[in-house]
Amino acid sequence: MSADRGAIAAALEHANVPALLVTLIHLTGDLGLLDGPIRPRQVWGDSQMGLTEQQRAEVRARAVPVIAALEDGAEQPRFRPSPEQVRDMASFLVGQAVGDDYLEFLLREVGLKPHPTGADGFEGFAANQRAAFHVVIVGAGMSGIVAAHRLGQAGISYTVVEKNADVGGTWLENTYPGCRVDTPNHSYSYSFAPRDWPQYFSAQPVLLDYFQDCATRFGIRDRIRFSTEVERLVFDEEQQVWTVHTRAVDGGTTGTLRANAVISAVGQLNRPRLPDIPGRDAFRGPSFHTARWDHRVALAGKRIAVIGTGASAFQAVPRIAPGAAEVFLFQRSPPWVNPRPEYHRDVPAGKHWLLNNVPHYARWYRLLQFWLSAEGALDYIYADDGWDEPGSVGKANRKLRRMLERHARKHLGEHPELLAKCIPDYAPGGKRMLYDDGTWFDTLKRPNVHLTTDPIARMSERGPVTAAGECFDVDVVIYATGFRTTDMLFPMQVIGRGGTDLRESWQGSPRAYRGVTIPGFPNLFCLYGPNTNVVVNTSIVILSECGVDYILHCLRLLLDTGSRSLECRQQVHDAYNEWIDAGNARTAWGAPGVRSWYKNDGGRVTQNWPYRLLDYWQQTRSADAADYRFR
Ligand code: NAP
Questions:
Q1: Which atom of ligand 1 sits closest to the CA of residue 595?
Q2: Residue of 204, 269, 425 best suited for mutating to test ligand 1, as the one with most atoms within 8 Å of CB
Q3: Closest to 307 (Cα-Cα) out of 461, 434, 465, 175
Q4: By CB atoms within 10 Å of each CB, which of 58, 447, 571, 578 scores lowest?
Q5: Average model confidence (pLDDT) across the chain
Q6: 392 CA from centroid of ligand 1 (Å)
């Protein structure tokens, strides 16, 4: 039966054309296309990379017979590009020279080399040696699942301790209306578990289903102690093991586990932060935090105060505003809003078909998504030396600022008062930029939504009272005020070598080596630890996978050397953190005067990774024994 060319052409209408073009090269070996007249180039916010409609049509037309021949079975993909050709194809795709240092990364991302599995490198150790090494993983969210999966592959025994009754972490806890991933979903997924996502930025139930399904498929569930919280970790120096003190969340029953190593996978955005507003508890009506949404409270027809305009409010307010009587939105500083037309869109059927049926397309598409939201965006948020123009940190950053201002003007130009409130005074990238398809600005324009920038001075029994003395009479208060972030690993108490308390040793400024290991705390490993958060909206899933790879290398070092523990050398750790601090100082989020959850009270950036993702990937590909002290 011959392929339905009409159906293929219809599916191609939904193609990401740059990814399709490189897929064609990959399918046919026609490298001449790299020098052809149709060249993707970077245009902020345009995932079609500046290709004209005519160029797109040309590429689609060229693709129809190639894909039809594959469907007919007449042709099979036979071209296997060399690493250098992959680099050239990637450079072409992203409209920017991709250096040779990306080669290894690229080959894995486009499927020409397998991603390492947890088993790699562990084959040489006897099964009983591996099984005798027991790891406790704290948390069964996105990072904990990767850690468990990889340890399982390595044949290392582990127990996951999870405070919630189910798997999912942030995707289990955040159930507020409108909650969805704000990283392109095709890159916000494990490298080893691709999914046919229903939307470009899928909603929370879809994400939750994904992580829960992964936990089931990878056989992790049986090894999770649910509804159990780790209260305290104490390092036993004599035995060189950790004692893990747990408490059942419901019954309060306590217990202990012994572990050769502990992996903290508790996340950075785990414990809600309520603001220190005087009289906060005086409010007589219901109030709750976005991450503890109280679904019993009916919001329809109510007067609602929402405090905060970060990523959570940004998603929740557009959903609650249409049914509410009034929404009073209290903004301390506005977010930068980044145009993204497909933010709420379904992935069309044609695109699903391409992703699932055309060899290589999904890989190149994922690579492009990753690049546009990560490496390709970095130049826009780096500071230029000597730049002193307020509101930007460099030339490229100023260009971005102007583009984002234009976007705001496009939506709010006829509402000058509102527009003035919505243009941040800090540089783009100072805080997380929020993707929008116009929904946010449309919400702010609603007659029943009122944006207040006067600070809240106190809470009365009726609602917020501002510094100017205005009293808001509301039925419900919603805190969209973020999380306790610099208080990393809170509320666990972690006691390391010599009785050192981790919180005391950090003194409000968490630091780790490669975001993972900490001097004084042997065999304690962090995932999504200090300085491993990313701001330009790339996928933290990639960083967690890198972190797990690094931990596995550390565990191999232990088994290799027959040591009971390894501990990061202080000097190595300190030099690394100086390098991290120097990197963050050159970014928009590290700029003085910007307040965000990325910084601690002293203004040090404790959360963010300042360099390319490739750099983190490279750093975590192996562990150097010289960085550690073994016992
Ligand atoms: P957030 O970004 O920390 O935002 C908190 C908001 O509350 C900010 O607007 C902050 O103002 C404001 N605020 C705090 N204390 C206040 C006070 N006393 N009075 C008035 N306003 C106050 O928290 P979030 O929105 O929950 O987001 C946290 C992070 O979670 C995001 O950056 C993102 O990484 C992640 N997140 C991701 C998604 C997603 O992927 N879909 C969704 C939600 C969150 P200032 O800016 O002036 O401090």
A1: 48
A2: 269
A3: 465
A4: 447
A5: 96
A6: 21
Give dist(CA 189, CA 169) in Å, integer.
15
Task: Flag whether pLDDT at 222 surpasses 90.
Answer: yes
Separation of alpha carbons 438 and 435, rounded Å: 9
Residues in the chain, how many? Answer: 631
Rounded CA gap, 46 and 24, in Å? 21
How close is the Cα of 533 to the center of ligand 1, in Å? 15
Span 56-115, pLDDT tens digits: 999 999 999 999 999 998 777 789 999 999 999 999 999 999 999 999 999 999 999 998
482 lines ligand 1 (CB under 6 A): yes
What pLDDT does residue 585 have? Answer: 96
- Does 310 contact ligand 1 (Cβ within 6 A)? yes
Is 142 close to ligand 1, i.e. is its CB under 6 Å away?
no
Handedness of CA 17, 22, 24, 30 (dihedral sign): positive
Whether 536 is in the pocket of ligand 1, judged by its Cβ within 6 Å, is: no
- Is the Cβ atom of 486 under 6 angstroms away from ligand 1? no
Reported as a single tens digit per residue, the pLDDT across 135-170 is 999 999 999 999 999 999 999 999 999 999 999 999
Q: What is the pLDDT of residues 385-394, one digit of tens each?
A: 999 999 999 9
Distance CA 517, CA 519 (A): 7
Residues linked to residue 346 through DSSP beta bridges, in sequence order:
199
| Residue that is written with structure tokens 């050159």 in the block | 586
Can you tell me which atom of ligand 1 is nearest the CA of 431?
32
Quickly list DSSP for 400-456.
HHHHHHHHHHHHHTT-HHHHHHHS-SSPTTSS--EEESSHHHHHHHSTTEEEE-SPE
Instruction: Give me the helix-helix angle, 17-28 and 361-373, nearest 10°.
Output: 140
Best CA proximity match to 601, nearest among 458, 453, 482, 487: 487
Provide the pLDDT confidence category of residue 593 given band limits of 50, 70 and 90.
Answer: confident
Q: What is the pLDDT at residue 539?
A: 86
Any idea what DSSP says for residue 97? P
> What distances in angstroms separate CA 62 from CA 5, 9, 21, 397, one per listed residue?
12, 10, 9, 38
pLDDT digits (tens, 9 = 90+) for 257-287: 999 999 999 999 989 999 999 999 999 999 9
For residue 537, pLDDT over 70 is answered with: no
329 lines ligand 1 (CB under 6 A): no
| Mutational test site, ligand 1, from 439, 481, 543, max ligand atoms within 8 Å of CB | 481
The model carries a pTM of 0.96
| Contact in structure between 583 and 611 (CB atoms under 8 Å) | yes
Q: Report yes or no: 29 and 80 within 8 Å, Cβ to Cβ.
A: no
191 CB-near residues (< 8 Å, 6+ apart) = 108, 109, 115, 542, 545
Q: What is the pLDDT of residues 356-388, one digit of tens each?
A: 999 999 999 999 988 988 898 999 999 999 999
